[in-house]
Amino acid sequence: MTPYRELAPPAGLLPVVACLWEHEAPPGHEQRIIPDGCVDLIRLDGELVVVGADTGPVVSTAGVAPAPSRTSGIRLRPGAAGAVLGIPASEVRDQRVPLTEVWPDVGPALADALDAADPAGRLDLLARTVLHRKAQRDGLVAAAARRLGEPGARISGVAGDLGVSERHLHRRTVDAVGYGPKMLGRVARLRRLIGLSSARPTPHSSGAPRTLADRAAASGYASQAHMSDEVRRLTGLTPVRFLEDAMLTAA
Q1: Burial of 5 (0-12, 13-18, 19+ CB in 10 A)
Q2: Which DSSP letter does residue 138 get?
Q3: Rounded to an integer, what distance in angstroms lies between the CA atom of residue 72 and that of residue 3?
Q4: If exposure means fewest CB atoms within 10 Å of the residue's CB, which of 25, 51, 57, 116 is most exposed?
Q5: CB distance 75 to 38 below 8 Å
Q6: How far apart, in Å, are the Cα atoms of 206 and each of 167, 197, 199, 213?
Q7: What pLDDT, in 10s, does the model give residues 89-133?
């Protein structure tokens, strides 16, 4: 069994798709999903759903059937969801919405095709469907997401660097991602923390942050207490518990 694996998207989808992925879980397995700034199209329990950008943790449990639960999906990059879906991404924030409601002209036929396909074929169908949308990632939001991921970044500074007002940046980010720059910055900071905590030390990494306080500072938090509060809000766990097995996924 492969609990979770990511596959690189076809070259034509690299600007808007972070990865294709599969997850296979034993019955009763509990999975904690944390905010990553992305929107996913997922085949879940035989239904094709749009999973909007989350603002907090979501815990799901695999079914009790004897067979493992297999889920497959395609993850849209931050800033691509609005264009791919054809609606403001904020309309699906913190929601799981049947794709037939978002794409009534495509969803039903795609769902039938996915039911008839094998696991590899399902990922290919999802990829080809997104490619057919010919969507383009919002370049302004993509640039803002990169800048907000830098330690010490401020929304006012990012907006100024990009030549737009904070209000304009907020509107574009909400439409393209699902929430505003402030939330996107919080997610970027959490992802930096995960990256620092999961990196394996090397003979030349003696200066790498090791304590929680060091990692909090290197990730851009004001203090260890600030980090602890943010981790609890975004993951539902303490930093120590969360970072025990946190994994940085594609986004």
Answers
A1: exposed
A2: -
A3: 11
A4: 116
A5: yes
A6: 42, 14, 13, 16
A7: 999 999 999 999 999 988 788 888 988 888 888 899 999 999 999
